[in-house]
Design a protein that fits this description.
With 348 residues, this protein is α+β, with helices and mostly antiparallel strands. 33% of the residues lie in helices and 26% in strands. α3 (56-66) packs across α4.
Length: 348
């Protein structure tokens, strides 16, 4: 009898361990789909015939024809949502929401986050992908630094691909909101960053109500999430290490980070300070890779310090003076001004 109970307990433990391991992927893992294939998938989803969109199953069937893998299946759903569902700013402003079910959103083509997540899950499920809807807290439209969250305010998804879970935010993939005349206005802008970003990056802007969906080695509390600074995803596009940033924040709640700005062509920052504030009299080194760049410059104290160029690599080491330090870039000889990528503050 003792052995019987022992086996039951052991089996229960193994089942729990298996379930837990399925919910704890590498927080830095990414989906790899070649850029040319991504463009092909996105174009296919964008041009979906209206006749194939009469119901969730027919839409899923059409999209999945193009998919060569589970990752591509998820991408097609994400792209279709971005190009075909609009954010319902009127409902957001009034607080009066229409039918946010998958069927209702497919019919109206309008949704707030819950509707986006419901339809995303439904299409994935109809196509054979395991997908869940997650509710939680977010640092999106209307967020204020150090804001306290009293209730959940956002909904997104997790999709299982090749046995591993990946996070998706179809709402933010479709566009963003801005304020005009005291009201939110929705702007359409396809942003595929929100297609399966690493969980280590996602946690800066999304905190699930259920901690298991954080996918972190060590989960954080709502209070810790509130203390995390808003990190613009452009930082991660540029190549700043999210694990370093995450560790700095947990070690120092007052940590501040370099300001980042979007520029017109791809840039990879191979080496640069991550902290916003730099020490007076301390040399600074930066190493930047930019295929299309003509010049990269440091602008500080009314002086220009040009980066040295070797092919597509730009490097500099210099000692900045107190005040603002900007890192700028030019991609075209006709540009009069530099596009600003980074902004630091050199302490006095």
């Amino acid at each position: 009898m003792i052995m019987k109970y022992f086996l039951i307990i052991l089996c229960s433990f193994l089942i729990s361990l298996t379930c837990f391991s399925q919910l704890t992927p590498d927080p830095d893992q990414k989906i790899s789909i070649p850029p040319n294939r991504l463009a092909e998938l996105d174009a296919y989803a964008k041009m979906t015939p209206r006749s194939m969109e009469s119901n969730v199953q027919s839409l899923a069937d059409y999209l999945m024809v193009k998919a060569g893998s589970e990752a591509e299946m998820a991408r097609l759903v994400f792209s279709w949502m971005a190009y075909n569902i609009k954010y319902d700013a009127r409902s957001f402003n009034s607080g009066q929401y229409g039918d946010m079910s998958a069927t209702g959103v497919l019919k109206s083509r309008l949704a707030v986050c819950a509707g986006f997540a419901n339809l995303f899950q439904a299409i994935c499920g109809a196509g054979g992908l395991e997908c869940v809807t997650i509710s939680g807290y977010s640092k999106g439209y209307g967020y204020r630094p150090k804001q306290k969250f009293t209730k959940t305010d956002h909904t997104w998804n997790a999709v299982k691909i090749n046995g591993e879970w990946y996070l998706m935010d179809a709402t933010w993939g479709q566009g963003y909101g801005e304020t005009r005349g005291g009201r939110m206005v929705a702007r359409e802008k396809f942003d595929d960053y929100w297609f399966a970003p690493p969980a280590r990056e996602f946690i800066f802007t999304h905190l699930p109500e259920d901690p298991q969906w954080q996918f972190q080695d060590e989960t954080i509390s709502k209070e810790q999430f509130e203390q995390l600074p808003y990190i613009d995803p452009v930082m991660f596009y540029y190549g700043f290490n999210p694990e370093v940033i995450f560790a700095k924040v947990l070690d120092n709640k007052k940590a501040t980070f370099v300001e980042v700005f979007t520029v017109d062509s791809p840039v990879e920052i191979l080496a640069a300070p991550v902290d916003q504030k730099l020490r007076k009299g301390t040399p600074v080194s930066l190493n930047i890779k930019a295929e299309a760049a003509l010049e990269v410059v440091a602008l500080n104290a009314n002086k220009r310090t040009m980066f040295q160029q070797q092919g597509n690599l730009f490097t500099v080491t210099f000692t900045p003076e107190p005040g603002d330090l900007f890192i700028g870039i030019k991609f075209n000889s006709k540009e009069k001004d530099y596009q600003i990528m980074l902004k630091y503050l050199v302490q006095r």
